[in-house]
Model the fold of this input.
Amino acid sequence: MGAHDEIFYLVKGSALPEVLVKVLEAKDLLQKGKVKTVQEAVYRVRLSRSAFYKYRDGVFPLEQGVEGKVVTVSLHLEHRSGVLSKVLGTMAKAKANVRTINQSTPVQGVAEVTVAFETTGMQAGLHGLLNQLARIEGVRTVAMVSQS
Done:
């Protein structure tokens, strides 16, 4: 085992080598039942079977990797009435089970809020939830800090 075998990385899709993107596409086809065999999946995405088997257990979408986990996000919120309430309401609609909320004292009209929540039962998926949070008026930034 190498030094990096048990370390997980969060990488933007655009930074992934094409072979890993194709493995993810093939896994998605199989999971959704659009194809019945690995042979069909790799043929559709133009990938070798050996590459699929080499990487299939090492690459997965963010939502799959955090399912049933506790995720911590950091948000920079404008210090205005209702912004935090909208954030928490959006999380509740997504079925994110909030564990802790920590808010800093606002500085220059912006407060940092850290929210830890369980992902079990979430409907929108983590990526979808983060996008929804980022679109709320008064939310300046949203970043995933950790998962456990």
